[in-house]
Each structure stands twice: as structure tokens, then as C-alpha cells.
């Protein structure tokens, strides 16, 4: 799941070296924190939050297979 989120985010941003994904697991919940350059935050969030919501949907679909709950933050 971490690799999938990193792949998606890396393709969206201009500064690919600044992309960092932190994954924390705790009692069936997975928190994913996305770190990007300040200038690329808008690209990841998207207009009206559409892109980040799509990333969350994809991550939650992957989480169903692993039977965990996913939270994504930027």
C-alpha cells in the first residue's frame, strides 16, 4: 500500500526527490503521512481536494484486502 501511494504521488509532483511516505501501523489502523515540497502540495491535494480523495479511495480499496483501516494525511 505504501509503495502504491508513493508511486501515485511521485507521478503528480515536480520535485520527485522531496516525496516521503511515512507509514505507521497501530491495532488494525494504518496512518500514511505524505511529505512533499511546499510548492507541490496543491498538485497532490487537487482542486477541491479531488486528487487526495482519489488517493484515499485507492488506498482504502487496498486496505480491504489487508483488513485494516487507512488514514492519509499531507
TrEMBL record:
The subcellular location is: Cytoplasm
Q: Name one GO molecular function term.
A: RNA binding
InterPro entries to which the protein is assigned, alphabetical: KH_dom-like_a/b, KH_sf_prok-type, KhpA
Return the PROSITE patterns for the record: KH_TYPE_1 (PS50084)
Q: Which CDD domains match?
A: KH-II_YlqC-like
- Principal subcellular localisation of the protein: cytoplasm
Task: Write down the Gene3D superfamilies for this protein, in alphabetical order.
Answer: 3.30.300.20
Q: What is this protein called?
A: RNA-binding protein KhpA
Which organism is this protein's natural source? Anaerococcus vaginalis ATCC 51170
Q: Which gene encodes it?
A: khpA
Amino acid at each position: 500500500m505504501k509503495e502504491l501511494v508513493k508511486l501515485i504521488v511521485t507521478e503528480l509532483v515536480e520535485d520527485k526527490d522531496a516525496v516521503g511516505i511515512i507509514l505507521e501501523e497501530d491495532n488494525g489502523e494504518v496512518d500514511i503521512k505524505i511529505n512533499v515540497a511546499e510548492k507541490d502540495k496543491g498538485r497532490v491535494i487537487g482542486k477541491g481536494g479531488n486528487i487526495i480523495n482519489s488517493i484515499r479511495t485507492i488506498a482504502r480499496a487496498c486496505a480491504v484486502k489487508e483488513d485494516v483501516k487507512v488514514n492519509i494525511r499531507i
